[in-house]
UniProtKB/TrEMBL annotation:
Residues 18-132, 146-261 form the VOC domain. It comes from Streptomyces lucensis JCM 4490. This is VOC domain-containing protein. Signal peptide: none annotated. Coiled coil: none annotated. InterPro entries: Anthracycline_SecMetBiosynth (IPR052164), Glyas_Bleomycin-R_OHBP_Dase (IPR029068), Glyoxalase_6 (IPR041581), VOC_core (IPR037523).
Length: 263
């Protein structure tokens, strides 16, 4: 895992394929706002309503992430979804289809904010595609409470690396290590995301999925706070070459990782 710190100002241009937004769809939006507001210090403002009630999460007045409410009859998995930047979401969506992926939503306009689609790769992992207009995506990084990395957990990396490389033009940087299947994706010469092949450790009832890492000042303290707010610990904290990291789930079951002092 390598951090992707970049200029995240309101006029920053991101290379195609760069994660530029993360979004969460839940059943109890107010309770979810309370959980993440306490954990990360986020405040919330109304956002585009094309997919139903939706809010933008802000940190010190700057956009960090989005959250929406699922319709009562929707039984979709509750999970964080990264959005990958595109210069032309319609063309990218068509390439997704041609490469064996699926486009589930869109492309459609999100008011004046931009144009988006929601898709899945051939392994079933869901991701978004974002073409900016007035809304550039996440506009703050490098401080606690902000997304710091996105990583695909899948059975093996070779086939999905080909898919994402074709769709977004990534350069691939495999990790050369016996028994460790990992590929770093680079866009515009910079590492932006990772693919982690975990083999049979991948839960059969869930399949492949993207996981978002959020920066925190103290991973152990964050876990105590998660538990106190009704979440649960999925993987206890451990020290890694990139910082102290743990995986947790919010009260609706959406998993994410927290990392202290990412490199």
């Amino acid at each position: 895992m390598t951090e992707t710190r970049e200029s995240a100002g309101p006029h920053a241009l991101r290379a195609p394929g760069t994660p530029c937004w993360v979004s969460l769809m839940v059943h109890e939006l107010a309770a979810t706002e309370e959980f993440y507001g306490e954990l990360f210090g986020w405040e919330f403002r109304p956002g585009p309503q094309q997919l139903g009630p939706y809010v933008r999460a802000l940190l010190d007045g700057r956009d960090v992430a989005g959250m929406g409410r699922l319709a009562p009859d929707q039984r979709l998995p509750v999970a964080w979804t990264p959005y990958l930047a595109s210069d032309d979401v319609d063309r990218t969506a068509e390439t997704v289809r041609l490469c064996g992926g699926t486009v589930a939503v869109g492309p459609l306009d999100a008011a004046e904010a931009g144009r988006m689609a929601i898709a899945s790769d051939p392994s079933g992992a869901v991701f978004g595609i974002w073409q900016r207009d007035a809304h550039p995506g996440t506009t703050v990084s490098g401080v606690p409470g902000t997304p710091v990395w996105n990583e695909l957990l899948t059975y093996e990396t070779e086939s999905v690396a080909t898919f994402y490389g074709t769709v977004f033009g990534y350069e691939e940087e495999p990790v050369v290590s016996a028994g460790f299947d990992y590929v770093t994706l680079r866009a515009g010469g910079r590492p932006v995301a990772g693919l982690h092949g975990v083999g049979h450790a991948l839960a059969r009832d869930r399949g492949s999925y993207w996981r978002t890492y959020f920066e925190v000042a103290d991973a152990d303290a964050a876990l105590r706070q998660v538990a106190g707010l009704g979440g649960r610990i999925v993987r206890p904290p451990h020290d890694s070459p990139h910082g102290r990291v743990a995986t947790v789930a919010d009260p609706e079951g959406a998993e994410f990782s927290v990392i202290e002092n990412p490199c």
